[in-house]
Amino acid sequence: MYEPDTMTPTIPASTSSSLPADWRDLFALTKPRVMSLVIFTGLCGLIAAPERIHPVLAFTAILCIAMGAGGAAALNQWWEADLDAGMKRTSKRPLPQGRLDRTTARDFAGVLCAASVFLMGFAIGWLAAAILAISIIYYAVVYTIWLKPRTPQNIVIGGGAGAFPPLIGWVAATGQISLMPVVLFAIIFFWTPPHFWALALFVKSDYAKVGIPMMPVVAGEKSTRRQILIYAVLLLPLSVVPWWIGGTGAVYGVSAIVLSGLFLALSLRVAVRERTGPDDAMKPEKQLFAYSVIYLFALFAALVVDRFVVL
Ligand code: HEM
Ligand SMILES: CC(C)=CCC/C(C)=C/CC/C(C)=C/COP(=O)(O)OP(=O)(O)O
C-alpha cells in the first residue's frame, strides 16, 4: 500500500456526539452535483433503449439510480471522513465539518442503498436491481475501501462504478443486456481517467498530503499527462461505435466526432504542457476537467436527440 508522508485526521471532536441531522447536510452527502450527471446518463440510457416503459416506472427506475448512487456516495464519505478532513477540496463536507455524526451518515447511506435495490427489484426487475447493487458495491467497497488507498490505477479499475448508470437505465427499459448499453458503459469507462486525472493534476498536493496514491502523486505529472492523452485518443473512435454498429443515426455520430475531437484537442494541450512553477494556475487542466463534464452531458444528450430526429 502507498505510504503517506503525513496524515492529518482533523475531524472536530463534536462528530462523536449525536447531532440533529439537517436535511441539507444529508443531501450534500449524496454528492448532488456529481450525481446529476450519473442520473442524466442513466436517464439517457433508459430513453435511448428500443423499448418504452410506463412513465411512472421510468421515473421509479431513475429514482432508484439516484438513491443508489447517492447512498454509495454517502457511504464513501462515511468511510473517508478522516481523509476528507485532511484535504482542502473536501474539508468543508458535512462529516469533516462535524455538522453530521458518522452513525447518522452510515444509517442514511445504508437505507438509501438497500431501498434503491429493493425498489428497483420489485418495481422494475431483478436484473436492473442486481446491476445497481453491483455498482453500489463497486463504488463503496471495491473503489473506496480497496483500490483507492492502494494503487494509482484506482480510478481506471474503479471507473467501472460510474459507468453502470446508462446500462442500468437500458436494462430497466428492456429487461436485458445487449451490445449498445455495453458500448455506453465502455465510453464512460474510458472517459473517467482523463476526467479525473485532469482534476488530480491541480489538487495533487491534497492527495499527497493524505497519502492517496493518485496517478500524479505516484507516477508524476508527465506520465499522468501522457496517460490522459492515451485515453482521449481511444475515446474518440469508441464514442463513434454506437453509430458504426447501427445503434444510432448521424446526429449522434457527427456529435460524437465533434465532441470527442475537442476532448482530444484539450487533452493534447494538457499532455504537451510543462508546468511553469508553483504559481502555475493549471488553466488547461481546469478547462479539460470542466469540459469533461460538459462532454458527457452533451454526448448522452446527442444520443437521446438522435433517437427522436430522423435525418
Ligand atoms: C472513478 C471514477 C470517478 C472519479 C474518481 C471522479 C472524481 C471526481 C472528483 C474528485 C470530482 C470533484 C468533485 C468535488 O469536488 O466534489 C468530480 C467531479 C465531477 N464528476 Fe467525477 N469522478 C468519477 C467518475 C464520474 C462519473 C462516472 C461521473 C458521471 C457520469 C462523474 C461526474 C462528475 C461531475 C458532474 C463532476 C462535477 C461536479 C461539480 O460541479 O463540482 N464523475 N469527479
Ligand atoms: C449507481 C451508482 C452506484 C453509480 C456510481 C456513481 C459514481 C459516479 C461513481 C464514480 C465514482 C466517483 C464519483 C468518485 C468520486 O471520487 P471520490 O469518491 O474518490 O471523490 P472524493 O475525493 O471527492 O471523495
Automatic annotation (TrEMBL):
It catalyses: heme b + (2E,6E)-farnesyl diphosphate + H2O = Fe(II)-heme o + diphosphate. Keywords: Cell membrane, Heme biosynthesis, Membrane, Transferase, Transmembrane, Transmembrane helix. InterPro entries: Protohaem_IX_farnesylTrfase (IPR006369), UbiA_prenyltransferase (IPR000537), UbiA_prenylTrfase_CS (IPR030470), UbiA_sf (IPR044878). It is found in: Cell membrane. The keyword Translocase does not apply. The chain crosses the membrane at residues 32-49, 56-79, 109-142, 154-173, 179-203, 228-245, 251-268, 288-310. Pathway: Porphyrin-containing compound metabolism; heme O biosynthesis; heme O from protoheme: step 1/1. Pfam families: UbiA. Its EC number is 2.5.1.141. It is a multi-pass membrane protein. The keyword Ribonucleoprotein does not apply. Converts heme B (protoheme IX) to heme O by substitution of the vinyl group on carbon 2 of heme B porphyrin ring with a hydroxyethyl farnesyl side group. Carbon 2 of the heme B porphyrin ring is defined according to the Fischer nomenclature. Belongs to the UbiA prenyltransferase family. Protoheme IX farnesyltransferase subfamily. This is Protoheme IX farnesyltransferase.
